[in-house]
Structure formats: C-alpha cells, structure tokens
Specification:
- The protein is an alpha/beta fold and 283 residues long.
- It has one domain: Rossmann fold (3-Layer(aba) Sandwich).
- A 7-stranded mixed sheet has the order 1-2-4-3-5-6-7, with helices on both faces.
- Strand 3, helix 5 and strand 4 form a beta-alpha-beta unit.
Length: 283
C-alpha cells in the first residue's frame, strides 16, 4: 500500500511538473490559463504606469501605424537546425545605408510589438529585421526558448543580413526576453559586423527569473518543483533553464552594450540589469 501510494504521488508530481512546463512555455496552453492574463497584464504594467506614459504609448502606436502603411519590405523565412520554420519582417530604408538592426521581442511576444522601435530605426536610415522567435507569433516551435534556443536561431538573420550587405553594421536590440537573447548571442562567436547591443529590461537567467515568479504566478515554492519542471523541459524541449543565462554571456562579451531598465518594471526586477551591468566585460 505504501509503495502504491508513493508511486501515485510520484506520478502526480511529474504530471504537475509537466503542467508547469506547458503553462510557462507552450503558448497554446498558456492562453487557456488565468496566469497568461496575469503575465500579459504585468508586461503592460511594465510599460504603462501613468496617464502621460499611456498617452505617449498610444501616440507611438498611431505614428507606427502610419509608418507601417508606407513602409517597404518583405516577409522572410528561415529553417532552424531542428527543422522549425521561422518568420521575420524585413523593412528597407529608401536611402543607401549599411546600417541594420535586428529587433527581438519579449516573452510571449510577437514581432509587431517591436514595430514602434522598427519605425524609429527605419526613419533614421536603418534596414530592419523583426523576427517572431520560435513558438511565438507566426514562427513554428514546440516550446518558447527563453532566449537560449533563440540565440542560435537568430544567427540565421545575421547570416541573411551579411548575404545582402557584407559591409553591414548591425545593432542587436532586444526587449525583456529578447534583450536576454541578444546578450546570450554575445556569448557566441559573432561577426565583427555586430557593432553593439541595446538590452532593454533583460533577465539574468531564465531559471532565476522563473524562480522569482513561481509564487506570484502559481503560488508554488521554487524548490523542488522548478527543478523537476526544468528536468522535464530538458527531456521534452532539449534545453536547460539554467543554461539560458545572459549573465554568463556578458562575462565573456566584447560587444559594446547599452543596458536599459525601468525601476517600475513589474515583470523583471531592475536588479537583474544592475547585476548584468556589473558583471559585463564588454565596454
């Protein structure tokens, strides 16, 4: 009887860990949960805290829509090493330019969320690439990559840029998870064409970030549930949340980086960007 009870308890525990993986990293599951609404609300609250800021945000979107209606570009597709089709939007500048920017959206985001930035860069003479990262927007995938699988995926867009322009001067600009991804990319071998990173509200690593949000989202302790969920993710999704570390990457980075983080961010603590800044080896 005791053995049977322990087996049942273990199966329930594993099922709970699998549910946690789905609830945090599979958008089709997330959309069915109250937690998804909370995450979305937190993301918006990180951007909007006052009427003035909200009005500025609304104006930015209005200006962006006007820009998008007249922008010239094309939809791009690339296939990842593990066979998923990724989608990105390219926007050209009308003037001759070697300036390029790769814009990376945040957790549970989509490329259109980065269009206000795309508009800003494009109107200043940049060619713009805005991808949907795997398992988000129009791009295929089974699990959100938390920047770790995306750091390799996004090299495909850098390769594309260099196919178009060997003299390209590239900026990597990410927001939230996209910022963490951009920093993780600096831990890889980047071409000299990548001139700088703009990191807007990055997390230090995905494991720590989820640990801090466990109680808020699911009212659960970090240990041992997150560790078991991480093991399930390694088995099902092929990566470890602890490996998804912007902190480890910046310690080895030589790419000039601008760190930005609002102290009213409801999603990712500003202390994470402070830690990244202090640890960064880059100028």
């Amino acid at each position: 009887m005791l053995v049977t009870g322990l087996i049942i308890l273990l199966l329930v525990y594993i099922a709970g860990a699998n549910f946690l993986v789905n609830a945090a990293l599979v958008p089709s599951t997330m959309e069915k949960l109250d937690a998804f609404s909370r995450i979305t609300q937190d993301s918006m609250e990180a951007l909007v805290h006052t009427d003035d800021i909200q009005q500025q945000n609304e104006k930015a979107w209005s200006d962006t829509e006007a820009w998008a209606a007249n922008a010239h570009g094309q939809k791009l597709t690339r296939t990842t090493q593990d066979g998923y089709e990724l989608i990105a939007q390219e926007v050209y500048t009308e003037e001759e330019s070697h300036k390029w920017v790769l814009l990376l959206h945040g957790y549970t985001g989509w490329k259109e969320a980065m269009y206000p930035f795309a508009s800003w860069y494009n109107q200043r003479g940049y060619h713009v690439i805005v991808p949907d990262m795997r398992c988000q927007g129009e791009s295929e995938g089974d699990f959100i990559g938390m920047g770790w699988t995306d750091r390799i995926d996004n090299m495909l867009w850098i390769d594309y840029i260099l196919e178009q322009d060997l003299q390209a001067q590239i900026v990597l600009h990410g927001q939230s998870m996209g910022a963490a991804c951009a920093l993780m990319m600096t831990g890889e071998e980047l071409p000299d064409n990548v001139k700088m990173v703009v990191s807007d509200c990055a997390f230090t690593d995905a494991y720590t970030m989820f640990g801090e949000k466990m109680k808020e989202w699911f009212h659960l302790p970090e240990f041992p549930i997150l560790d078991t969920a991480n093991l399930m993710l390694q088995m099902r999704g092929g990566y470890d949340l602890k490996d998804a570390s912007a902190l480890n990457a910046v310690k080895e980075s030589s790419t000039p980086t601008l760190f930005i983080h609002g102290d009213q961010d409801e999603m990712i603590s500003v202390e994470m960007s402070k830690e990244l800044y202090e640890a960064a080896a880059c100028p």
